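> example.struct
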């Protein structure tokens, strides 16, 4: 890995705008070839407590800085990230595996939240509420909630961080971040640029760690932490919610998904193929909004499947730094094991392989772009996130069947459907129990729009004009006159 700016590659933990090291280290691997990229400091409970203390101290001054000044610093951070796109993308591909072009896209997408929330920072308005009393006047103001802890996953090592940190910092909160163990390098590079942009000491602290449980306990139970923002699995989200209950913290949970992509008989096949492909195979199928189930109406099934299989077969597998590669490695051995377990279960229960269906020749952690058909609700992959490049295809007959099948999950993050009848589009969009609906489109997330799930996919919104709300308290003042 050859970075133009080698200062972006850090191996310490970051508190108070200073780099520290621990005696204990852990390796960060390149999933494409198993190489150790670097050994990183393993921050523990003591470091987590120090980070919270630094964030508490910094909150005193950062929270009262005029929003315009905070915005100016965030805009500088945004510019520096964009300026270093190539290096950050290379770092991202090296530790996470996604193709370089996708990584560049994530850098831009991740940076866009910083730009957006720098702009939103100046529009955090309160209200003047008409009073029913002659002798009282009512006003609300919005204030930063306080010290925020953020815990993030490995599948978007930049964007899942900026989606939280940007609104938090914009409104005056300070943050302690625990990135995923598999991908701490992008988080540390973001810290380098945050400091360069002028974010003051203690405002943004980063703790790479192998001790997720212990550090997570501090971040979810420490009395100084007022808010926990978590992106990750529903399973871990449940644990963190329980832990945070002990001190009644404000929370945002961006959890797992089980997205259906529904192809109705009136769909434009080209759009349905393009949208399903983009949703399913981006990041080798490792996104929370990946189409986990492809539901196809019987009458359009032959035509859709012919075009879809052709498109999937054309996806090139390999190391993400190589030209034209569209499918990189999965993140680690556990991920490969999970895909193989889900595949075996589906095949045991009657599914058939149409394409792929096994590990790819490119290396230990690569899996072939795969399509399996004859899937049913009894199969484990109908209920669990596949998180790999496998399309599980189901056939349905009526609109009612499709909606029933689509909603038969504890998750409620994203759903996609492809149709052209406008009345039907409205009805179906209203009936799908999901927080995000892609209609004739597979790529749906932008800084301007609200991202977040319902049901056991969590609560809270990231991005959009709503994204600041999770980091604010509303204070009501009653003024006697
Ligand atoms: P994960 O296992 O839940 O881990 C997420 C983060 O939580 C990591 O930093 C992990 O640390 C940490 N963690 C794990 N156990 C913990 C504990 N007991 N206490 C405190 N922290 C703990 O999820 P993942 O495998 O990284 O990411 C994939 C999951 O994230 C999928 O379910 C996906 O759908 C979801 N996701 C959701 C969204 C969304 O916006 N809704 C976006 C992206 C991903 P370690 O890395 O050290 O284990």
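> example.seq
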């Amino acid at each position: 890995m050859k970075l133009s700016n080698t200062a972006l590659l850090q191996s310490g933990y970051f508190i108070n705008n200073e780099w520290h090291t621990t005696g204990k280290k852990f390796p960060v691997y390149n999933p494409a070839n198993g190489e150790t990229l670097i050994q990183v400091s393993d921050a523990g409970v003591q470091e987590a407590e120090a980070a919270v203390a630094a964030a508490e101290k910094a909150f005193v001054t950062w929270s009262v800085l005029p929003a315009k000044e905070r915005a100016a610093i965030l805009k500088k951070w945004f510019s520096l990230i964009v300026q270093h796109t190539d290096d950050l993308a290379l770092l991202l591909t090296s530790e996470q595996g996604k193709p370089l072009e996708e990584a560049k896209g994530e850098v831009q997408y991740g940076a866009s939240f910083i730009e957006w929330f720098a702009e939103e920072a100046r529009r955090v308005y309160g209200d003047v509420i008409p009073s029913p009393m002659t002798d009282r006047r009512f006003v609300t103001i919005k204030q930063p909630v306080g010290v925020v802890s953020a815990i993030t996953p490995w599948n978007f090592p930049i964007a899942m961080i900026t989606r939280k940190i940007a609104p938090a910092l914009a409104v005056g909160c300070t943050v302690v971040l625990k990135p995923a163990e598999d991908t701490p390098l992008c988080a540390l590079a973001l810290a380098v640029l945050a400091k360069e942009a002028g974010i003051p000491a203690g405002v943004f602290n980063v703790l790479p760690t192998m001790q997720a449980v212990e550090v997570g306990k501090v971040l979810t139970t420490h009395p100084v932490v007022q808010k926990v923002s978590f992106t990750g699995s529903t399973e871990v989200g449940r644990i963190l919610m329980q832990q945070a209950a002990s001190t009644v913290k404000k929370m945002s949970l961006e959890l797992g998904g089980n997205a259906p992509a529904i192809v109705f008989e009136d769909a434009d096949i080209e759009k349905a193929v393009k949208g399903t492909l983009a949703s399913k195979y981006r990041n080798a199928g490792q996104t929370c909004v990946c189409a986990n189930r492809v539901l196809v109406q019987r009458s359009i099934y032959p035509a859709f499947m012919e075009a879809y299989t052709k498109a999937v077969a054309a996806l090139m597998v390999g190391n993400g730094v190589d030209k034209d590669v569209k499918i990189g490695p999965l993140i680690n051995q556990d991920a490969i094991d999970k895909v193989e377990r889900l595949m075996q279960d589906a095949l045991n229960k009657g599914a058939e392989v149409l394409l792929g269906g096994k590990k790819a020749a490119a290396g230990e952690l690569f899996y072939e772009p795969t399509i399996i058909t004859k899937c049913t609700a009894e199969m484990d992959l109908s209920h669990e996130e596949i998180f790999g490049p496998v399309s599980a295809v189901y056939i349905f007959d009526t609109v009612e069947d499709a909606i029933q099948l689509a909603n038969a999950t504890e998750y409620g993050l994203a759903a996609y459907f492809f149709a052209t009848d406008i009345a039907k589009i409205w009805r179906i969009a209203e009936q799908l129990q999901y927080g995000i609906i892609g209609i004739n489109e597979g790529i749906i997330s932008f800084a301007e729009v609200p991202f977040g799930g319902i049901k056991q996919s969590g609560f809270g919104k990231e991005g959009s004009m709503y994204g600041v709300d999770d980091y604010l308290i509303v204070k009501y003042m009653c003024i006697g006159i």
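> remarks
Residues 6-255+457-480 form a domain with the Aldehyde Dehydrogenase; Chain A, domain 1 fold (CATH 3.40.605.10).
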